[in-house]
Amino acid sequence: MTVDMSQFYQVFFDEAEELLAEKEKLLLAVDVSAPDSEDLNAIFRAAHSIKGGAATFGFTDITEVTHMLESLLDRIRKGEMALTAEHVDAFLAAKDILKMQMDGHRQGSSVDQDAVSSVCQRLHALSQDSAAHAGSAVQPAGQPEKRATGTASTPTQAASASRSFRIELPEVPQRDVDALAAELGLLGEISQSVLDNKRSVFTLATNEKLDDIIAICSFVLDPDDLKITEETASAVAQPEADTAPPAMPESEPGYGFFEPLKSEIEKKDTSATEQAAAMPQSAHQEAETAVSVEGKPFGRRAADKQPATQESSSIRVGIEKVDQLINLVGELVITQAMIEQRTGSLDPILHERLLNSVGQLTRNTRDLQEAVMSIRMMPMDYVFSRFPRMVRDLAAKLGKKVEFITRGAATELDKGLIERIVDPLTHLVRNSVDHGIEMPDARRAAGKDEAGKLILSAAHQGGNIVIEVSDDGAGLNRDRILAKAKQQGLPVSDTMPDAEVWQLIFAPGFSTAEAVTDVSGRGVGMDVVKRNIMAMGGTVEISSAKGYGSTMSISLPLTLAILDGMSVKVGEEVYILPLGYVIESLQPTPADVKEIAGQGQVVKVREDYLPLIPLHKIFAIEPRYTDPSQGIVVILESDGKKAALLVDALVGQQQVVVKNLESNFRKVAGISGATILGDGGVSLILDVAALLRSSRQLTAAPIFS
Amino acid sequence: MAKTILAVDDSGSLRQMVAFSLKAAGYQVIEAVDGQDGLDKAKKQTVDLVLTDQNMPRMDGLSLIKALRGMTSYQRVPILMLTTESGDDMKAQGKAAGANGWLVKPFDPQRLTEVVKKVIG
């Protein structure tokens, strides 16, 4: 039977990724001077579990790195080696490497082999240092240090080498061959010969495991190019013969039974000594070869507690399945709306029972929809968990002290949004560390704690999630922003309210490369941040006080799949306006509508003149009314700017299921999506932000406000 | 009737691989995520073979084996350890606990089914 192992890869990757994240979290929290042994065990188990999986599924590169990591961690957790900050740094770097390797396997992204070998060397060096320093390392002076990539617990050097390997190298430069010979020479006795086609062959007599040999070779060349065979002729007497494989690992069965099966099943014997005595003699033939097994020296200890216990109460499902489910529920909602609409005209007395049932269907559908939508929800921790590391690294690089606090990590958000919020949030957090929080001496001079506080929080507010990045740093500098804005020719005045001044940092290109001040630096890519968040239907707000810090507050809808909309009619067409943009609707008097030469019309709403956007002109439809005083104008606001949209009539307010237009048709300017109405008709959802942007280009709106 | 195997491992990917391979070979498979879960599931239904990992949270493989051997219904059920611990020490411990044999990780589906066939046919 052949089984396609690749079908399990995804589960392995997911699992490994969880373990890596957990490992990083533990590493960041670990107190180097007094590490908690439970934590060390958990970190070890994470490396160990990944190694186990990687070995099973044949990801040798991951196996190699985790193997080194695991052996180091094993010694640390056993107290044979003290944990140092250097270790933590190297382990964190190794985590990044493993992530890269996994992405390489998964997405085919490129793997920086230099980085891999540099981390391997770092781990290697650490294990060597410790071999030299650790009190427990039995190592006569003057003898070469044992290459501690594998089991540190068998320090005997190859005086009576138990195994002999024949290592056939691919064609490599002579200096690599020499380097490898020197390295392998430390493992035992080595002899070298050259094949006719100029390839070198080593014969190595050693006690070390095959894995260790491969690990060492992999510093110099790709282990896949190696051909290693074990020469079985090694007749050297070996006291622990059954731990040293007499045969080639690949050909071994890798299993064994303590007693012949039949008798074992028939007879139950729990006497340990008797069994132990019986083992060598009565063991099944297979057992004999299997006892030795391949050179996997480490046991598969438990995976992390947390993911494991979570696993018992959760299942992994492909996101496509969930999306399909959501889609189907969306269709159901539409059908239900249709039924509701059609039964609406029935006589409530005659059809009482039918209408009751429809009412129940409506409730059930809504509950079902909510329940299904919640499947896609993920805790913000998914995003938050990546920041402690980033903040730590960044603060170290800048020489700052930052205390990083997260709140509301359990707050849930749609998976699609959560993935898109990562980049903007990264930007904001980085800006806070880089430009918000001051250097320790500046903070001390200002009478603040040396360590700046950076708080990342998430909370639900109505149908939105509000994510805040706040620091207790220097705050935004109003004067500098204004000066910079003037220099860039932005329309500003010295009397502008703070809120508007802060918004200036979102202007495209507001901050440029030559900007070195703490303030202008804040503008790096802020326009991109804002654009990304707007694209998710969200908003960004800034509050800041000089000397006390600043807070960036992002507000996002919980999901993109459902939208509260207002339907409006133009001619025979019905369009949906996302309710979040709608402020009010009114019918202007003829006197309130004014023509501006070459710039279209404006409407006077209370004290403001707002540009008028006739929807029928944008989509070239024949409307019922062209005169604003006969139709209805809907006042919309986006980006802090308002405009009046002229339509024929308001139809109503409803929740709509958003269907992507782009993936089903193509991108249409001014339209963000489509939906199916209760009557089965299709209605387009207007991209209000884009409409307002285009209107602003047409009319010089600021003049009138 | 298809024989039932209890597969205990805290690693989801390993468990999935084991379950898939054994199901493909015609066995019924019950999965458990750690020793405690394995014990709970073993109590509900007596199986024909137990495959257990050694190092798991909550309850490790050795404790599970000992607990199973303490139940009358499991005194004769074959138990195999799935382990990367190929050392004597671990095997002696497994034997003392009452395991019938071991299978070394990493293993491939072929080897797994081969071993299982040897034990329960």
Automatic annotation (TrEMBL), chain A:
It catalyses: ATP + protein L-histidine = ADP + protein N-phospho-L-histidine. PROSITE patterns: CHEW, HIS_KIN, HPT. Residues 131-166, 266-290 are annotated as: Disordered. The keyword Phosphoprotein applies. Gene3D superfamilies: CheY-binding domain of CheA, Histidine kinase CheA-like, homodimeric domain, Histidine kinase-like ATPase, C-terminal domain, HPT domain, SH3 Domains. The modification Phosphohistidine is found at residue 48. InterPro entries: Bact_Chemotaxis_CheA, CheA-like_dim, CheA-like_homodim_sf, CheW-like_dom_sf, CheW-lke_dom, CheY-binding, CheY-binding_CheA, HATPase_C_sf. One of its GO terms (cellular component) is cytoplasm. Residues 149-164 have a biased composition (Low complexity). Its main location: cytoplasm. It is an enzyme of class 2 (transferase). One of its GO terms (molecular function) is phosphorelay sensor kinase activity. Its EC number is 2.7.13.3. Residues 352-560 form the Histidine kinase domain. PANTHER family: CHEMOTAXIS PROTEIN CHEA, SENSOR HISTIDINE KINASE CHEA. Involved in the transmission of sensory signals from the chemoreceptors to the flagellar motors. CheA is autophosphorylated; it can transfer its phosphate group to either CheB or CheY. This is Chemotaxis protein CheA.
Automatic annotation (TrEMBL), chain B:
CDD domains: REC_CheY4-like. SUPFAM superfamilies: CheY-like. Pfam families: Response_reg. InterPro entries: Bact_response_regulator (IPR050595), CheY-like_superfamily (IPR011006), Sig_transdc_resp-reg_receiver (IPR001789). The keyword Oxidoreductase does not apply. Keywords: Phosphoprotein, Receptor. Residues 4-120 form the Response regulatory domain. Transmembrane segments: none annotated. The modification 4-aspartylphosphate is found at residue 53. PROSITE patterns: RESPONSE_REGULATORY. PANTHER family: CHEMOTAXIS TWO-COMPONENT RESPONSE REGULATOR, STRESS RESPONSE REGULATOR PROTEIN 1. This is Chemotaxis regulator-transmits chemoreceptor signals to flagelllar motor components CheY. It comes from Sulfuriferula multivorans.
